[in-house]
Task: inverse folding
């Protein structure tokens, strides 16, 4: 079905197409029969897909990456697509418009996007968590991805993250700290150990004081050296952060046409795949598979997901792959993983994990 819809969507500006799809999912999520129809079209139920990461149980290991539903408006519709988790956000304390449009560019031949969104979102005051159904009635798990406002100085990033964590933790199965978007000036500097360790410690202190414990993960860039990754691991371990999401978009334009070099922002999709997997493998090997990792970047099918899981990812996420392949991508990946389990005589997808 997406094969019919896609050419129409691709005639529109990418951000308009995105809002149409999000609106459709929001509508479909509002009615029991349309939710049931989506679930029967796209869902895959199999106990072998169930997995646990950072103490949270997931129905399956495939989730939606941050940036798709920034304000949490389409949670019920996305739940019906059979996703194991949905990462809402990036949410900032105050509303902001983001960078000038156009700010998403498609590269269909390369199966890539370049975006310079800059966290457009309605801010905490308008965050839609209150409209979500009670946690028990969703099958998917919810991550909430937090970032700092563009005009907030880096020294105050921790304060904002802590305020956001306090405000949203009750609705989150995990929280992600985004220190890796290339579209907020200076944000990636928070990945350096001198800035990262105090930030993570403050956030972990607030996490530990909350009435209900929520795992906190940090989302990192793919454009980091092994030394920088080691520093991140040191900060994560010393602050007792629960896991890492690897990776965000890349500044690299390798594999894209010349015109992409002049665009601001980060590349996602196929050209990011190998680099993101290399980061996951490095992190998993350094931590002997003990640190939970969510693997994201360029997953277009079961093989790509398997590559990340074998490299050490506990869960995986998709974004750009869904833009090109449609919502059926989740089912394709899950069925593919089940086939591999069958072939290898495994009882659970978690047994596929390497690292
Ligand atoms: C249009 C767009 C918007 C995004 N917005 C966010 C965001 O707000 N926060 C975030 O952490 N990552 C954001 N990302 C990055 C994705 O979550 C993901 O890390 C990245 O796209 C790599 O995965 P993919 O190759 O499957 O798309 C965005 C990506 C795209 C394409």
Result:
């Amino acid at each position: 079905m997406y094969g019919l819809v896609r050419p129409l969507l691709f005639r529109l500006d990418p951000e308009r197409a995105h809002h149409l799809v999000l609106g459709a999912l929001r509508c479909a999520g509002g009615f029991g029969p349309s939710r049931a129809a989506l679930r029967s079209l796209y869902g895959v139920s199999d106990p072998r897909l169930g997995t646990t990461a950072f103490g949270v149980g997931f129905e399956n290991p495939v989730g939606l990456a941050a940036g798709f539903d920034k304000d949490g408006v389409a949670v019920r519709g996305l739940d019906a697509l059979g996703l194991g988790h949905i990462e809402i956000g990036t949410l900032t304390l105050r509303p902001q418009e983001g960078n000038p449009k156009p700010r998403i560019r498609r590269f269909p031949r390369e199966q890539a996007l370049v975006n310079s969104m800059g966290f457009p979102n309605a801010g905490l005051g308008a965050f839609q968590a209150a409209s979500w159904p009670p946690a028990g009635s969703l099958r998917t798990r919810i991550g909430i991805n937090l970032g700092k406002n563009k005009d907030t100085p880096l020294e105050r990033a921790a304060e904002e993250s802590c305020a956001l964590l306090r405000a949203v933790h009750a609705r989150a199965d995990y929280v992600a700290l985004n220190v890796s978007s290339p579209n907020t000036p200076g944000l990636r500097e928070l990945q350096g150990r001198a800035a990262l360790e105090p930030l993570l410690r403050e956030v972990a202190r607030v996490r530990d004081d909350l009435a209900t414990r929520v795992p906190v993960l940090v989302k990192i860039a793919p454009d980091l050296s092994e030394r920088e990754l080691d520093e991140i691991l040191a900060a994560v371990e010393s602050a007792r952060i629960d896991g890492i999401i690897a990776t965000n978009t890349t500044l690299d334009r390798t594999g894209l046409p010349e015109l992409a070099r002049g665009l601001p922002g980060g590349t996602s999709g196929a050209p990011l795949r190998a680099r993101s997997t290399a980061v996951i493998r490095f992190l998993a090997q350094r931590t002997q598979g003990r640190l939970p990792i969510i693997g994201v970047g360029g997953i277009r099918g079961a093989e790509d997901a398997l590559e990340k899981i074998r490299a050490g990812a506990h869960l995986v996420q998709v974004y750009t792959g869904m833009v090109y392949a449609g919502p059926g991508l989740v089912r394709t990946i899950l069925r593919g993983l089940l086939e591999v389990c069958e072939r290898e005589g495994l009882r659970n997808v978690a047994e596929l994990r390497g690292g």
The CA atoms of residues 66 and 152 lie 21 Å apart. The first strand starts at residue 51 and ends at 53. The two ends are 37 Å apart (CA to CA). The mean pLDDT is 97.
